[in-house]
Design goal:
Helix content: 40-55%
Mean pLDDT: 79
CATH architecture: 3-Layer(aba) Sandwich
Order of helices and strands: HHHEEEEEEHHEEEHHH
Distance between the termini: 22 Å
Number of strands: 9
Radius of gyration: 19 Å
Structural class: alpha+beta
Number of helices: 8
Length: 233
């Protein structure tokens, strides 16, 4: 979301500097670059999943944090869910096509790959390591040891297709999910009590480099409206 807004606003500012009061005409005629449109599509997936996760957030067994900045980086983490069953780092993807796990190995080797449609998306799972490391650094080794925490990475495909009897699967330690299956995973019973979940959520908010962007009531309503619209579609 942040990246799209940054690109969008930068383009508008450049147009105003160059064309002045005619900048609006220029922006309408030229349209946004493909790279900016791609970030817009991704941000819509993030918003939809965020709206769904907000319906699970109860301040006791599930606390969800959105749009977290990774320290010393321009990258962000879409969602962090602190639950009775541990901490989940969730990256939302708005890709289309059928999600599949395909072994590209030979006779004597295995090479599991993540495909969405014809696209090899394995790198998405590999890149989750940076996000997990950022959350672990924020929580600290002492906290992770005290609560025996598992920080679990999840790729959640919001708009993709799945076969009729599909189940979530793991690829290199990353869970590959869709929203409803993710919701079930987050709601599973676990060893952490409500006060532990709340403590971990506060701990996740203490590092200024990974601070949570404040969410206004208007933004919260927008997330819920987005989720309800998606459910009806």
């Amino acid at each position: 979301m942040r990246r799209y807004e940054s690109l969008h606003n930068s383009r508008e500012e450049r147009a105003k500097e160059r064309f002045g009061r005619f900048s609006g005409v220029y922006l309408r005629v030229t349209g946004e670059p493909q790279t900016t449109r791609a970030w817009a599509v991704g941000s819509r997936g993030e918003e939809r999943l965020g709206a769904f996760l907000e319906t699970l957030h109860d301040d006791e067994t599930i606390i969800v944090l959105h749009d977290r900045r990774i320290p010393r980086s321009r990258a962000n983490i879409d969602h962090i869910a602190i639950t009775a069953n541990g901490v989940f780092v969730v990256d939302a993807k708005n890709y289309t096509g059928k999600v599949r796990k395909i072994d590209k190995g030979g006779w004597f080797s295995t090479d599991p790959r993540l495909y969405v449609g014809r696209r090899d998306c394995t790198k998405l799972a590999v890149d989750m390591g940076k996000q997990v490391a950022a959350v672990q650094d924020t929580l600290g080794e002492a906290t992770i040891a005290e609560f025996e925490l598992q920080v679990t990475p999840v790729l959640c495909f919001v708009a993709a297709e799945w076969s009729l009897f599909a189940k979530p699967f793991r690829l290199g330690g990353v869970w590959i999910e869709w929203p409803n299956s993710l919701g079930q995973r987050l709601a599973a019973l676990g060893p952490l009590a409500a006060e532990h979940v709340q403590t971990l959520a506060k701990k996740s908010s203490q590092n200024d480099g990974c601070s949570l962007l404040k969410q206004t009531r208007q933004q919260a309503r927008a997330r819920n409206a987005s989720w309800m619209s998606w459910r009806r579609s």
